[in-house]
Amino acid sequence: MSGMSQRELAAAAGVPHSTIARIESSVRQPSLALLDRILIAADLDLKLRLEPYDDHDDVLDNLAALQPGRREQLGRSLDRMAAASRPVS
Known about the structure:
This protein is mostly helical. It has helices at 6-13, 17-24, 32-41, 56-65, 68-85. Helix 1 (6-13) crosses helix 2.
């Protein structure tokens, strides 16, 4: 973010330092208005584009919800499948 510290960004955006810290640590999700204000303070521009829904994130969320052992087992299976599909030279 333009090399600014959290405190500098907070001061430029007119918000408490704790707001920036909580957003950065994923404790708080800012509204679009607040995000726009913070980005303007960092000399950035927020641009939004609407696109058809893509279920890719649903797949990632489902993987993240798996128990760690099951997630590792699935990862090993996917690695084996990827290795088997590589052309042999």
